[in-house]
Design brief:
It is an enzyme of class 6 (ligase). The protein is an alpha+beta fold. Helix content is 39%, strand content 19%. It has a seven-stranded mixed sheet. Bound molecules: 3,4-dihydroxyphenylalanine (DAH).
Length: 348
Amino acid sequence: MVKEIKKIEDSAGSEIPTAKNREELEELRIKFLGREKGALTLILRSLKTLPDADKKRVGEEANKLRGVIEGLFAARTEELKRTETESILKKEWLDVTRPGKKGPHGHLHPVTLVRREVEKIFASMGFGVVEGPEVETEWYNFDALNIPVDHPARDMVDTFFLKNPKGKNQSPKLLLRTHTSPVQIRYMQKHNSPLRIIVPGRVYRYEATDASHDIQFQQVEGLMVDKNVSVANFKGVVLEFFKKLFGMNVEIRLRPSFFPFTEPSFEIDISCIACNKKGCSICKKTGWLEVMGAGMVHPKVFEAAGYAPGNQQGFAFGFGLDRVTMMKYKIPDIRLFHSGDIRFLKQF
Ligand code: DAH
C-alpha cells in the first residue's frame, strides 16, 4: 500500500506540473482525486480493510499526499492561467499610438465644383447669387416672361405640370420650372435697379433623354439692370466670365436669335476650347461652341415685374451649367452626372 502511495506521488509529481492546459489538468484531477475512481480516493477508501496497526500510518501518508497533490494542482492552475493571459495579450496586442485607417471620403460633384467657380467669378464682378423656387406658377415661368399662351414651350410635351394641392383646375397652375428666368421677375418685384445677380439652380424638361439632354439639369441665369446698361456691357461681362472659367483667351461672338423675354436676343458662341477655332469633332468643325442665350430685357418683362417704363435697361442671359461642365471636363454624356457611377465621379 505504501508502495502504491509512493507510485502515485511520483506520477503526480511529474504529470501535474507538465499538464499542457486546463483540460489536461482536469483529467489529471479526476485520475488522482476523482470521487469514483481517483487513485488516491481508492487508497483512502481501502483503508478500512487494513489491520489497525497499518491503518494509522498509511492513512497519514495518504492524507499527506492528498495535501501535496492539491498543492501541485493549485500551483499548475496558477501557472496555466498566467500563460493563457500572456498569450491572449500577445495575440490581441494593439498599438493605440498608430494612426487609424482612413474611411472613404466623398467629394463635391463636378457640376457643383463648376457652379461654385461660376459664382466666384461673377461675385468678383459684383454679381450677387440668388435662388428661386423649383416649383413655379405658370405666370412666373411663362406669362410674366412674355411667353404667349400658344408658345410651344407651354405644351405638356415640354413641361412637367403639377397637380394643384387644392384640387383640379384650381389656380395657380403649378409646374416644375423649365428655366431659371422666372427668378428675374421674382427678384425685380422685390428689388429696384440698379441690380446685378446670377441665379443658379435646377430646371426640368419633359423630354426624351440622350447624350446632351436630361429631364433635369442646372442653369445659371444672369441679370444686370441699370440706367444705361448696354450690349457692350454684356459682352464685356460675359467675355471676362468665359476667359476665367476656361482659363484661356477665348473669343465670343453674338448671333441674332429670338427669346420672348429679350429684345434684341442673341445666341452666344465661344471659340472652341478644344481646337481654338481650327475645327474639330467637339465643335463639329465649326470652330465655335454654342454656350448661352441672352438679350436686352424686354419692356414687357420690366412691366410684369412692376418697373416703371423707360427708366432702366438691362441684359439677361441663361446657360446650362451641366453643358459648361461637360465642355470644361470633356464629358461626353450628360446622363453620367446622375448615373451614380463612382468610377465617373472619382475622376474629379
Ligand atoms: N431661359 C432660356 C432657356 O431656358 C435661356 C435664356 C435665354 C435666358 C435668353 C435668358 C435670356 O435670360 O436672356 O433656354
